[in-house]
Amino acid sequence: MLPISKTIETDLVVIGGGIGGLMAAISAAEQGTRVVVLEKADTRRSGSGGGGCDHFFCYLPEVHGNDLDVIFQELMESQIGSCYDPLLTYQFMKMSSSIVRKWQEWGINMKPYNNEFVFRGHAFPGRPRIWLKYDGHNQKAVLTKKARSLGVTILNHHDVLELLHDGTRALGALALDNSRSEPSFVLVQSRCVMMASGTASRLYTPMSTPSTMFNTANSPANAGAGHAQALRAGARLVNFELPYRHSGHKYWTRAGKGTWIVIFKYPDGSNVGPFITKATKEVSDITSDVWNNVFTDMAREGRAPIYMDCSQIDEEDFQCMMKDFESEGLTSFLNYMGKRGLDLRKQAVEFGQFEPYFLGRGVEIGVDGQTTLPGLYAAGDVVGNVRGAIAGAAVYGWICGENIGKRYQDLEIKPVADLDLTRERMEFFSSLYERKSGAPWQEGNWGLQQILTDYAGAGPERVRSETLLSAGLKNLRELRELCKAEMKVSNSHELMRAAEVFDLLDVGEAIMLCARERRETRGLHIRKDYPFTNPLYNKKIFYIERRNGEYVVGMRDKYK
Ligand SMILES: Cc1cc2nc3c(=O)[nH]c(=O)nc-3n(C[C@H](O)[C@H](O)[C@H](O)COP(=O)(O)OP(=O)(O)OC[C@H]3O[C@@H](n4cnc5c(N)ncnc54)[C@H](O)[C@@H]3O)c2cc1C
């Protein structure tokens, strides 16, 4: 078996040093909690927020006035969607302004325009604005520095393979030290565990570049670890059956479309949407937020390509957009334009719709940030019942850390080395390394992508049905057995990728089980055998959890 290189004892172990994880670490450490962050990459630049972000949705009384309800309603009715628990969204709104002020104080510029709070982007003309424009290019470096200054231990290049538990509560984590080629395990035993591993990318065949599976809108290294590990541990997950698809530059799969100051145009130069006739930095075209499928729908109609046209915007607004691309982490696009001599004032850019990934589909938490598994907290894109994205990750990360800081002393630290789960997982991962020959991890990942795309695909071009989903489940389970029997890794990097594939397989199975249970059509979940939207489900949330080794799929009311 592969060796255990260290065993660490702490009050809180954080899985994933992204925005949510670092915020939880900082807030818990401020209260004297001993914190260890396990990060598979490097917290200074890892995760979806690694390059930067520039829209932070929040409620600031000095800008919005004293009626929080107005902003709450705008948020619930905007692109953020209606599949969340209003109670948690409300809690988020109440806390959001204090986080904006903390970030400003720590060195993330929340007032990049004349030292004032400016709200714009993803906005309807004449409606309240909920997105604060900020400059997040250095956000990961700032949060890392802050965490370290409070004594947080950050272990970079430590990939969490399994959330450890005894069936009644979370107890720690089994990690892989992938800082060297030779793999070894690291065990962390802790009073509480914070899950903050981000979204689940690489589930579906990439829409624009099927041959390059790491060309994804959000971090491709976020591979459903938290979703799968929380599910296996018995926590409840929600909204798995509702696909989410983002859009952006065609072939250059990347989030960040809200930063563009543009109008969407048909090839003949006419406008696609009804919202504006001139794009300004105050109000750009919100068509693709409202009509998510516009690019696919128009391709199917033969009316594509749809272009982002910046040719008519004022020079000052253009310069502002170019600067904002840096804040938003679109520097690779800027570099490419520079190298190729592209000028957005002269050349329109074709946009397209990407494959599904998880945003707001994931672990269920309560208002205090705790999951249904005692001792396990979660925040950010891994969470399913309140919006993640940058603000959700930051605010709920903070809430989790605060509550952990108040409660961690009530829980004792238990040894994890002798748990059956620890031993079984270490034996399994060691076997992938120790076998003489086998198939590379990529084959498992491609197989999963094909199965999900074919049997649990998302609208508007793909449909689902009882027969498709049942056949898909059978194929996926067979693929998992094949992977277990035949996958071979040769170093710690490949072992990390292999573990990701097994997590993604579990996420894929859960997607299909939930999709089979939701016997209606809603959004991009198009059931050919149930072609209508059932109003009785409007206020419900579908969940999945594991009880006594079996999956249970059910439905509950939204928390008001
Ligand atoms: C280009 C771009 C622009 C964006 N702009 C905006 C914006 O303007 N506004 C907005 O609201 N959102 C924006 N987003 C989305 C936003 O960045 C994410 O929603 C946010 O980072 C989520 O935070 P998180 O902590 O949940 O996940 P992340 O920040 O992705 O962090 C997850 C961390 O977990 C680590 N990890 C994953 N698995 C493991 C494992 N098994 N073991 C150890 N570590 C693990 C990852 O390496 C990563 O560091 C943008 C995204 C991109 C890509």
Short description:
By secondary structure, the chain is an alpha+beta fold. It folds into two domains: 1-53 and 136-240 and 361-534, 3-Layer(bba) Sandwich (FAD/NAD(P)-binding domain); 249-355, Flavocytochrome C3, Chain A, domain 1. It has 15 helices and 17 strands.
Distance between the termini: 49 Å
CATH domain class name of the largest domain: Alpha Beta
User: In angstroms, what is the radius of gyration?
Assistant: 23 Å
CATH topology of the largest domain: FAD/NAD(P)-binding domain
Bound molecules: flavin-adenine dinucleotide
**What is the helix tally?**
15
**What CATH architecture label of the largest domain applies?**
3-Layer(bba) Sandwich
Number of separate strands: 17
Mean pLDDT: 95
- Class by SSE composition: alpha+beta
> How many distinct folded domains?
2
For CATH, the homologous superfamily of the largest domain is named as: FAD/NAD(P)-binding domain
Largest sheet: 7 strands, mixed
Low-confidence stretches: none
The geometry reads as: globular
What fraction of the residues are assigned to beta strands by DSSP?
A: 15-25%
What is the chains' assembly state?
single chain
Helix residue percentage: 25-40%
